[in-house]
Amino acid sequence: MLHCYFFEPDGKLKVANDPAGVRRAFQDGTLYWVDLENPTESEEEILWEVFNFHQLAVEDCIATHQYPKIDDYGDYLYLIVHAVDYNKKDGVFRTTELDIFLTPQFVVTFHYDLMRSTTQQRHRLTEGAIPPDRRPAFLLHQILDSLIHNYGPAMENFEKRISNIEELIIKKPDPRVLDRIFQFKKEGLNLKRIVGPQREVINRLSRGEFRLIPTELRAYYRDIFDEISRYTEMAESHRDVIMMALDAYLSATSNRLNEVMRVLTVFSTIFMPLTFITGLLGMNFEHIPGAENWWGFYIIIGVSILVGVGMYIYFKFKKWV
Amino acid sequence: MLHCYFFEPDGKLKVANDPAGVRRAFQDGTLYWVDLENPTESEEEILWEVFNFHQLAVEDCIATHQYPKIDDYGDYLYLIVHAVDYNKKDGVFRTTELDIFLTPQFVVTFHYDLMRSTTQQRHRLTEGAIPPDRRPAFLLHQILDSLIHNYGPAMENFEKRISNIEELIIKKPDPRVLDRIFQFKKEGLNLKRIVGPQREVINRLSRGEFRLIPTELRAYYRDIFDEISRYTEMAESHRDVIMMALDAYLSATSNRLNEVMRVLTVFSTIFMPLTFITGLLGMNFEHIPGAENWWGFYIIIGVSILVGVGMYIYFKFKKWV
Amino acid sequence: MLHCYFFEPDGKLKVANDPAGVRRAFQDGTLYWVDLENPTESEEEILWEVFNFHQLAVEDCIATHQYPKIDDYGDYLYLIVHAVDYNKKDGVFRTTELDIFLTPQFVVTFHYDLMRSTTQQRHRLTEGAIPPDRRPAFLLHQILDSLIHNYGPAMENFEKRISNIEELIIKKPDPRVLDRIFQFKKEGLNLKRIVGPQREVINRLSRGEFRLIPTELRAYYRDIFDEISRYTEMAESHRDVIMMALDAYLSATSNRLNEVMRVLTVFSTIFMPLTFITGLLGMNFEHIPGAENWWGFYIIIGVSILVGVGMYIYFKFKKWV
Amino acid sequence: MLHCYFFEPDGKLKVANDPAGVRRAFQDGTLYWVDLENPTESEEEILWEVFNFHQLAVEDCIATHQYPKIDDYGDYLYLIVHAVDYNKKDGVFRTTELDIFLTPQFVVTFHYDLMRSTTQQRHRLTEGAIPPDRRPAFLLHQILDSLIHNYGPAMENFEKRISNIEELIIKKPDPRVLDRIFQFKKEGLNLKRIVGPQREVINRLSRGEFRLIPTELRAYYRDIFDEISRYTEMAESHRDVIMMALDAYLSATSNRLNEVMRVLTVFSTIFMPLTFITGLLGMNFEHIPGAENWWGFYIIIGVSILVGVGMYIYFKFKKWV
Amino acid sequence: MLHCYFFEPDGKLKVANDPAGVRRAFQDGTLYWVDLENPTESEEEILWEVFNFHQLAVEDCIATHQYPKIDDYGDYLYLIVHAVDYNKKDGVFRTTELDIFLTPQFVVTFHYDLMRSTTQQRHRLTEGAIPPDRRPAFLLHQILDSLIHNYGPAMENFEKRISNIEELIIKKPDPRVLDRIFQFKKEGLNLKRIVGPQREVINRLSRGEFRLIPTELRAYYRDIFDEISRYTEMAESHRDVIMMALDAYLSATSNRLNEVMRVLTVFSTIFMPLTFITGLLGMNFEHIPGAENWWGFYIIIGVSILVGVGMYIYFKFKKWV
């Protein structure tokens, strides 16, 4: 799908949905924003046929699995950023790619998946909310702002799931917990791989490196930079928390082993001597002391109880039971 | 609540408690300090209606869970710093946010929680202690100085609690100790996340990056910087100490397991051969050597004692008991 | 083997296969590319006799086991890069060295092993695909581009093998898995040792440090740089994933030990008291309570079942079984 | 105590021990060195009353537990350095603070504890060894040189104690060794916390950052810098060695557990089948094969020996014994 | 021993072996190289009496246990480098110190131990191989080149010994392997401590920081720099490999423990129920079911075999045996 927004000479915002409309608006110099959402091949063609973007940028655009980056092609900037993939239901943290071209006159966005941030902007435009500032750098800020903002709930959800796991470790540490810890570790690794370069992209936009970002808009970009920095920090500390969860799990496992072994040892050390005594008195000998007396059996019972209680007191003293 | 301090033309310090007073003092150019403590919405409005601060700074101000930072808006500086949260009783290390605007004429502080450092300054002002230096950069130093100073007792308390835990590990390592170690680790992580950027804020104030901090006051800011650097170092080394405590706990656990297993093995290796011998002699056979003699039983007793003592000596030699 | 490409005055591409041809093309100034593939000694000689390259560069060329680097000799650049070794069948990730000289007029490539990237370029030239840009810096880009591109499948294969191992750990953790984890760790280490400096070489080529790379070609080099950066990131994260696999393996081992010990303890604590009771009643005594009654045996059976079931419920409650 | 050294007009070195003497020498411009050793309050006063040092520097001076640093107050430098605390007998590595003011005319040293380096300098002066170079920067070098030099024996002692521990781990790893390893770790941490910033202080003195250190003396400061760098390296590698000692201890513990468990298993697997056989033949049955024959007992003995020897050979083969 | 080389006016190389000869050659300006090999005190004196080198450099020269460094004294450079100590037979990686002075006219080398690199140069000179380039910076390069080159075999030997250990871990992991791993770790630590600063020394020589190294020789120094960088990389990766060996050893230990415990558990769980049954039937009761029948014994044998086989199948299913 292709969504093209341009301003008529009287300042009215119009919409076009075909490459021809884009071409016309581009030639009239009224083009404001082209949003290519899972475009067809003929829609993709406008990137090089109409806008004449550099072959390498177009290739990166069409290719998937790119990391966030920003390239300055002189007349325009080419950005790759990643949005959180919010409409999945398996609760796993994923990201999807958004490619953006920023020129002095207009913005081009390119993405294969539905994207909440561009959809939000489109709604705001079509609902007549004429943007107060028609500059493309402002539109770019709006898109990036809502894109980064959408990380918030996902990060909080991630944090909540980790703290659920922590509770589980304390209550009932079983091997399935371990699988989930490793799942988190992988998600965290992936998140770091995306958020790190993305933060760098926003940083370069905010520190006045590019002529296409006017000075008076920099504070706005710095604001997004602060937000993504906060998420980067959170991702960093998630890593520590996950490591801690792993340590906690291993400690819990080791504590259980200790507990199990103590029980085994307490039982063994109480019953092995007693069994030996009964074995001794159970020998097939003719002369066993006390064997003829009626109280022999009770004396052995008494000795057994004494040994058992003595051992128990000893283990109590050793803090084993 | 709103506390506004301004100097009358004759140099007398006056107090106002309503937005109207602030507006008047601002227009007269006599404004010195506005402290917004958990402000109402109408009090918050003076930030943009009277002082005309940038929308982004005001948003950051009202939002919570921001990390320490410093933004230069040309005419004024906007700082976020964190004070230790001192009036909690659960002994956990927390911080609360303080937002500060520094202009060439006055200071604005904004916070939702009671804050010891601003309260101290207000007392000093109202008790007639006219500040020796009426410049806002000096007032900012006073506020930051007492804010950072308050970290001291909290850090020491944290350190004392850790060393209590260490003692406990040596005396009685049980799983609850582990929970407390992980609790410390989380607090330490949180502390690092706050103190690190805060140190950077003070560093930028002290190294003459901002025109609003006069050169002759820089030594004072460097003094706070030294103090917070010391706390950062302490926080760093706390991390190492906590890791060490975890290692110590795991080692203690593993030592106990060893001890338990040695006891089990010593008992088993002594009594298993003996039980076998009694089993052998307890077989339901007609011809068992020595079964008819009265001394048979005592020989077995003797052999058992010999085997037991021999094993014991062997384990003594092996340093198991 | 020696492959020499030069342009005749009429712009036609010609091929020569002997040192004499190279020398002639060099003197005529028509030389475009010399590819030395596992050269004989007399072919190697052209490096210093014809091209007069610096003795140190020639020595590095002939020596093997060099790391990627780039040296600026003023008139020409000397590069060492590594290609993935693709025609091995043991599935292990290896690299082979490619030495390149870039002069303002021509390119010299030198390698002992068959190399896919140079072979590809030779095919494209001999099949009449006259390069659109005859500059050597463009040819260098073409060679490096296909060389780096070939890392892709190898990296993906590596990733797939690691995730196979992960599945295996969950299903059946045995010591052979450990050997394979360590094998991966070594491969990853080796990969990092090669890809790190190689990325640096491409970085220096792309950032305009060398006069021999024209400004308009830099975007193309930056494109390869992005690709190799992606592989470096992948190599980095492989390391984390391998560490995780090792942790998972050790945890699985420790879980099994726990399981084994629980079984042992459950059996021991059930049967040791029971065996003691039978031992007690098996003593060679004349007066044993209940020994004369026909129901004695069945009472003991009943007691045994009671003790066994009681223990089982206790362990169920303790979550051991 | 206060020790003040000044030069009379005829070049003779004189000593004064009271604030009045210091004030006189300061006004005459003949002051060379004031050493304040655990000063009284009236002696401390000369810092601000006579020398007019900045309030912040004086506060840092009087406060304890400061980290090494250097502050440039324009007319003078203020340094905090740490000496090793040599007169303790518990063998623990501690440091004490020394505060130094360097002005173009004289040096002021301030310390609460006895300090070997200042005492040495005082002796050299009073014994008539007129310094060849009366410049304060030279005196400062002398003091720092002997201060840093005193680290040598302490570092070597530390190293020797660590290698003692290593021997102990190999010979007899018991839990007390662990306590000592953790003690070392703490000392090492503390050492790093002091030596790191101290190295930075000396580095800044040696690289010509301060006008008060003449160019021709820099080589001397670089010499101390090399020495403290060596100690920093040693402290760094101590950390690795201590970590290694911990690993070694844990490995030794784990090896012992293995050894213990092998013994237990060997005994159990030999005697459990044998005890079962005797139990079988000890059943209270009327018809037990071989029970009536005189050789029955000896066959069982034989079978037991066979089973025992067979098991032993099996374990030998498995390398368990 | 002292070896002094100088050029007579007619360009002939001459040798002198006493301080007087050095002094003469120095005054004539014909001095080329003085090699002080384990010098006597009177030979050491030429450093300050004849060459007038700075006192600090001379002190560093005579002192031992210095780390590699380079000091610029304006007229001359003072270097400390370390050669591998090749004539030891215990197979441990050690280094010995070589001190070098480079002046615009001549080179002075100073070492206490026999040194392969200086000996090689002396042979080349005395065998009439007049150096093609008489500049001292060229001689310095020759000495450093062969010194660094000698690291190669030692590094390879180190690598081979490590891979021997790895094989041993897989075949027969016993505690002595651990001792050797720790030995390697210490050697690696030591190596890193030497090679790191040495690489920095060569780097500074090669990047044109010192006027005494002519521009046209820099490529040669860069060549040594590449070589030592390769060794640094190797040392770095050795560290990882040693860590891996330790992990492998600990895993092997833990696997063995698991194996041992499984055997114990399998035996216990099979024989404990069986022994209980025989105990039950061995009770000294008058009425035991089946005791009077001749087939009673055989039924118990049958039940035992059934229980044993059943347990075995269960453990087979659980993958324990």
Describe this structure in words.
5 copies of one chain form a homopentamer. In chain A, strands 2-1-3-7-6-5-4 form a 7-stranded mixed sheet, sandwiched between helices. Helix content of chain A is 59%, strand content 13%. The radius of gyration of chain A is 35 Å and the shape is rod-shaped. In chain A, strand 1 and strand 2 (13-16) form a beta hairpin. Chain A is an alpha+beta fold and 321 residues long. Chain A starts with a strand and ends with a helix. The mean pLDDT of chain A is 86. Chains in contact: A-B, A-C, B-D, C-E, D-E. At the A-B interface, helix 9 of A face helix 4, helix 8, helix 9 and helix 10 of B.
Topology overview:
The structure is a homopentamer of 321-residue chains.
Chain A lengths: L1 E6 L5 E4 L2 H10 L2 E7 L3 H4 L1 H4 L5 H8 L6 E4 L4 E8 L10 E8 L4 E5 L4 H11 L9 H14 L1 H21 L3 H32 L11 H64 L14 H22 L4
Helix pairs in contact in A: 5-6, 6-9, 7-8, 7-9, 8-9, 9-10
Strand content of chain A: 5-15%
Radius of gyration of chain A: 35 Å
Measured between the Cα atoms of the first and last residue of chain A, the distance is 70 Å
Strand order of the largest sheet of chain A: 2-1-3-7-6-5-4
Average pLDDT across residues of chain A?
86
Most extensive interface, residues per chain?
A: A-B, 43 and 53 residues
Question: Using DSSP, what is the number of strands of chain A?
Answer: 7
What is the approximate shape of chain A?
A: rod-shaped
Quaternary organisation of the protein chains:
homopentamer
Enumerate how many helices of chain A there are, as a single number. 10
